Amino acid sequence: MGKHKFLYLEKVEKSFPVPGKESYVAVTDIDLEIKKNEIISIIGHSGCGKSTLLNMISGLDMQTDGYIFLKGKEIKGPGPDRAVVFQNHSLLPWLSVYKNIAMAVKKVMPELSSSELRARVEKYISMVNLEHAKDKRPDEISGGMKQRVGIARALSINPDVLLMDEPFGALDSLTRANLQEHLMRIQKSVENTVIIITHDIDEAVLLSDRVIMMTNGPSATIGEILEVNLERPRKRVELQHDKEYIRCREAILNFLYEKFAKEDE
Amino acid sequence: MNNELAKKIILPMFVFIALLSVWSMIANSVDDFPTPTDTYVAAFGGTNVDGDEITGVLSDPFYIENQDDKGLFWQILESLKRVFGGFALAIIVGVPLGLFIGMSKNAQYAFDPFIQIFKPVSPLAWLPLLLFIFQDINMTAISTIFITSIWPIIINTALGVRSVNEDYMNVAKVLQFNPLEKVVQIILPVAVPFIFTGMRLSLGIAWLVIVAAEMLTGGIGIGFWIWDEYNNLAYHNIIIGIIIVGLVGFLLDLIMGQVADFFDYKKRGRA
């Protein structure tokens, strides 16, 4: 049992009922242990159930079989101990950057005085370098900035796990690289357990301690787990010729395009 | 003055002139139909067709002769009171009901058929029944307005609730908002512009209904006044009544639009 482990998934399965037919099994037989302060990427082709997996950890979706434990307690629904950074940022458009974060902090830490609240919100705004935009509303800032606010909001409630569902997927590659740098810098200072869903091989290798590779659905499961033995801080440019980096890249490429290549439907 | 604004002022003038000529043509072909000039005199005073000096109905809208004979201002005020009575009731009942129907699929299934059936019923059909129940002019008018103007509020409120983005609700779930926090912090900011659209439609209906309701119930009010002028054979006053009803309705819609914009986060000034 996963009582003593930080985050533990045991024989997790998710199936969806199909009227008149056998139910559709999206993911099955997921066994995974994630250590505290570890950064994990989950990579796979679209339809491999990687978002389903993340949703079950966040509690927004329930597994149909198996167990998920966080710090020895079974996960039975969503909660602020598992903050989510959504792909489309999900900021409330009628609130300023400051208020979006303050709303979350106020709810999760109601005991804070107004000055403590203010200090906490501002700390996380400056963590993502958005002091200049704190009174702006989401529609007044760029996509990359919105996603930084999303990250600040998620971290501000001091979660045990930070769940990111293709957090940079909707952004152009330069903005994406910029955000990856932000994330690595923040991770160094706050030390958090992070699970990132991605379909970007470089992103997975650059950010993670381990890369979880998913087989194709239906009945997708964990195909391979790759350890990324690279020192931190990692420098994107230097890594391009690093033997370990190249090995990791090739391993993922090989998995995704040789062993589990997917035809376009 | 910019070009666009000049057009907005000048172009309606042409239509106005066209309307006046159609009106004059009708006045020429229908016996006793008041001409635009007759109507103007009846409104603002002057010498009428018979050569008599008269004071117009609009020159002293504030007079009170007795309980049943009051100036136009009081007639309109009386109508507005009823309109806002029924409208306020429609908001008080319609918004919570709309929120409920929007948030619960089961509530939607339960209420939807009845909304669809009662929505198209004319106020004139409700009126006798409500008059029979209340035996009172004011209550009848107010309840008729309530029952005919509540539908757009319910429908639009429910639509607003249903248009709340799934992602916002996920944020609420992760933060473990209770139902009240969900309504206040997530649903209402999204739904409020929809609610106001519903209220605007509803107020429009309420103003339409009041004229018809007062014609049947009698008493005091702009609708009854128009009917009374018909019985007095004062046809020019009917036309004045129509124009006043139109202007007041236009004004109500304008005010409602401003209020709606104020509560719409997309249109409100930057926070």
Labels describing this entry:
heterodimer; A: 265 residues; alpha/beta; Rossmann fold; six-stranded mixed sheet; four-stranded antiparallel sheet; 8 helices; 10 strands; B: 271 residues; MetI-like fold; 2 domains; 4 strands; elongated
How would you describe what is shown here?
The complex is a heterodimer of chains A (265) and B (271). With 265 residues, chain A is of the alpha/beta class. Chain A has two domains: 7-81 and 159-259, P-loop containing nucleotide triphosphate hydrolases (Rossmann fold); 92-157, no CATH class. Chain A is 36% helix and 23% strand. Chain A is built from eight helices and ten strands. Chain A has helices at residues 50-58, 97-108, 114-127, 143-156, 173-190, 201-207, 236-239, 243-259; strands spanning 7-16, 24-34, 39-43, 65-70, 73-74, 82-85, 161-165, 193-198, 210-214, 222-227. In chain A, the strands form two sheets. In chain A, strands 6-7-8-3-9-10 form a six-stranded mixed sheet, with helices on both faces. In chain A, strands 2-1-4-5 form a four-stranded antiparallel sheet, with helices on one face. In chain A, helix 3 (114-127) crosses helix 4 and helix 4 packs parallel to helix 5 (173-190). In chain B, the strands form two sheets. Chain B has a two-stranded antiparallel ribbon. A two-stranded antiparallel ribbon of chain B has the order 3-4. In chain B, a hairpin with a 2-residue loop joins strand 3 (64-66) and strand 4. The longest helix of chain B is centred in the last third of the chain and has 39 residues, at 179-217. The mean pLDDT of chain B is 89. The A-B interface holds A 58-60, 77-80, 82-84, 86, 88, 90, 92-96, 99, 103-104, 107-108, 135, 137, 140, 157 and B 165, 167-168, 170-171, 173-177, 181, 185-186, 189, 265-266, 270-271.
